[in-house]
Amino acid sequence: MTVVQVGPLMPFLESALASDYAARRLPDTFADGAFDDVTIAVTSGRVGVGAALMSRLPALRAVINFGVGYDTTDVAEATRRGIVVSNTPDVLDDCVADTALGLIIDVMRGLSAADRYVRRGDWPAHGNPPLARKVSGARVGILGLGRIGLAIARRLDGFGCDISYHNRSPRDVPYRYAPSPAALAADVDVLVVAVSGGPNTRHLVSAEVIDALGADAFLVNVARGSAVDETALVSALVGGRLAGAGLDTFADEPHVPAALLTLDRVVLTPHLGSGTSETRRAMSDLTLANLARFVKDGTLVTPVAGS
Ligand code: 8YV
């Protein structure tokens, strides 16, 4: 089995791949035939393995993805070619949900903005900053009630929040189901995006959904930038048609729309949802467990749906 690394990975994962599997990093450009022996590609949601790369790795049999999201890997094409794909579900639910709660509290209570206020010396100069919004008891809509969405809902239960959600179909949960993203948005103080990425969720948070949220409501995104129409979002935030946003993901990472950088009502984080040493270690361990299993018997510990 010949293993390659596609794109950058956590340093401890890169070291394990190099020492235990003699994995080389696939260069951005290479001559035809140079990697014809590659059977396994280890990658992450940042880069992935698209159809074009698959066609240049004729012996490829498995794509092992670090991360729960695998929207940068073409699973339909992989399946057509008999290539299996794994991801790292479950182990990051807590940290991504913690991040969502952090963003909700930060943007509603204005914590980051208040921190800047104090550091600028505005407190003695201008007194207390403007009043914020109450988090406990707020109406929160979760778009995408999967494993991460449920972890967010459980945390919000502890805050006495009124929780509703939208999924393709209702789940057996004690939360109110909304039949569409716009219907969900119309009835909440905060909309939290927790859907998976890819073409099915592209611009699910459309201009219409943002309008339905309205000038008193907030948007929090810990999923994928592609799930939100970022142009419509920026226009609503700049125009005061949305109260604020807490954003961990963006359409063109690592680039953030310049117009957001000067808005105090927006909290911006650099896609750090799963970014704790404990969780990234667990994701790395699960990545290596998938790799070891595939090398041993051709199966995966956590294959993605449809692969
Ligand atoms: C990672 C993520 O930062 O798991 C995911 O889908 O978005 C994050 O946990 C990312 O996969 C690393 O590339």
UniProtKB/TrEMBL annotation:
Domain D-isomer specific 2-hydroxyacid dehydrogenase catalytic span(s) in chain numbering: 35-304
One of the record's GO cellular component terms: cytosol
Name of one Pfam family that matches: 2-Hacid_dh_C
SUPFAM superfamilies referenced in this protein's UniProt entry, alphabetically: Formate/glycerate dehydrogenase catalytic domain-like, NAD(P)-binding Rossmann-fold domains
The keyword Oxidoreductase appears for this protein: yes
Keyword Cytoplasm included in the entry's annotation: no
GO molecular function, one term: glyoxylate reductase (NADPH) activity
Protein name: Lactate dehydrogenase
Record organism: Actinoplanes derwentensis
